[in-house]
């Protein structure tokens, strides 16, 4: 008869293991409870509280709905501008970052110079960069002098028709740097043997991007897409540096929230926390299903292992 020696688990070592994990996690748990759970529960309570009488009400949600549906409502304009920033990033900045990253990865002529050029917006102060950008596009500025565009005296940022588009152009210019670094980092992980084999088979740059590079870096691309959708309602530009009061129809949702909390609120004066909380709750109810759907859709694509 064969006897199996079953090693009994030492209760003391088990306790020490779980006690160590508890001590390790107690800090992050307290931090999460105080600065996320308590703050969000308080925010939900404020959404259902009247700012004047402090009674339970849904008047804040009525104000949000009226602001969204009214043609002259600030929130409707902010939502439209936010959508412009979001789709510009999703449909232009991310794809172009991947293409630029591919050519830098292939070490095109002067690729080190392009590395510096695209990374400069991350190094230079945002205040200095926006100031240079504003002066460059000003009336009788360098751009106006070079191409004789006849920019009006108030400049492109001083007109409602061109202010948002001008800031959008700035976000495109400054949005490449971090994305390019991520894409180039993902591409450098691809085994060189795969690309050499494709080159021997007569694979051109376009086919190499579509059939080899894109599938192999798809985990990085999918993560960036999911992160982009998490910022669906917070996509914005440096409105405070260009148009401090959100004038000339440049208001976005994130800047509107900032103005409601720190500026002159539309309801209850400065610090309209109740209206902001109701707005955030509505956007969360809309945004969470969209993010979960995008994540589910992205996970349907099979990952390529190498």
Could you walk me through the main structural features you see in this protein, from its secondary elements to its overall organization?
The structure is a single chain. The model is unreliable at 265-269 (pLDDT under 50). It contains 14 helices and no strands. It is 68% helix and 0% strand. The chain has 306 residues and is mainly alpha-helical. The two termini are 49 Å apart. Helix 2 (59-69) packs across helix 3, helix 2 (59-69) packs across helix 14 (273-299) and helix 3 packs parallel to helix 7 (163-174).
Structure in a nutshell:
The protein has 306 residues and is mainly α.
Question: Can you tag this structure with a few keywords?
Answer:
306 residues, mainly alpha
Q: Segments where pLDDT lies below 50 for 5+ residues?
A: 265-269
Structural class by SSE content: mainly alpha
Major sheet characteristics: none
Kindly state the mean pLDDT as a whole number? 86
* Element string (H = helix, E = strand): HHHHHHHHHHHHHH
What percent of the residues sit in helical stretches (DSSP H or I)?
Answer: 55-70%
Global shape: flat
Q: What is the count of helical runs?
A: 14
The total beta strand count reads 0
Q: Could you give the distance between the termini? A: 49 Å
Taken as a percent bin, the fraction of beta residues is under 5%
What value does the Rg take, in angstroms?
26 Å
Question: How are the SSEs placed, and which strands pair?
Answer:
Blueprint: H1 11-47, H2 59-69, H3 74-105, H4 111-123, H5 126-136, H6 142-147, H7 163-174, H8 176-187, H9 192-200, H10 205-216, H11 218-230, H12 239-242, H13 253-262, H14 273-299
Helix pairs in contact: 1-14, 2-3, 2-14, 3-7, 3-8, 3-11, 3-13, 4-8, 11-14
């Amino acid at each position: 008869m064969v006897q199996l020696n079953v090693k009994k688990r030492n209760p003391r070592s088990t306790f020490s293991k779980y006690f160590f994990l508890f001590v390790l996690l107690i800090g992050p748990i307290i931090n999460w409870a105080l600065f996320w759970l308590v703050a969000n529960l308080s925010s939900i309570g404020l959404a259902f509280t009247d700012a004047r009488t402090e009674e339970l009400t849904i008047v804040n949600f009525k104000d949000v709905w009226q602001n969204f549906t009214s043609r002259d409502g600030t929130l409707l304009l902010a939502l439209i501008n936010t959508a412009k920033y979001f789709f510009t990033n999703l449909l232009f900045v991310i794809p172009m970052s991947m293409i630029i990253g591919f050519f830098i990865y292939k070490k095109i002529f002067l690729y080190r110079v392009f590395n510096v050029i695209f990374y400069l917006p991350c190094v230079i102060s945002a205040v200095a960069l926006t100031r240079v950008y504003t002066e460059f596009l000003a009336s009788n500025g360098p751009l106006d002098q070079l191409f004789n565009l006849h920019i009006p005296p108030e400049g492109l940022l001083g007109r409602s028709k061109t202010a948002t588009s001008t800031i959008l152009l700035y976000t495109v210019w400054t949005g490449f740097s971090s994305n390019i670094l991520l894409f180039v980092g993902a591409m450098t992980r691809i085994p060189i043997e795969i690309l050499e084999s494709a080159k021997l088979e007569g694979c051109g740059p376009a086919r190499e991007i579509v059939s080899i590079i894109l599938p192999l870096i798809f985990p990085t691309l999918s993560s960036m897409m999911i992160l982009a959708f998490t910022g669906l309602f917070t996509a914005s530009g440096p409105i405070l540096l260009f148009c401090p009061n959100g004038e000339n129809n440049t208001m976005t949702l994130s800047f509107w929230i900032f103005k409601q909390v720190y500026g002159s609120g539309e309801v209850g004066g400065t610090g309209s926390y109740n209206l902001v909380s109701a707005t955030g709750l509505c956007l969360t109810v809309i945004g969470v299903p969209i993010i979960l759907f995008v994540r589910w859709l992205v996970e349907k694509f099979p990952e390529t292992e190498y």
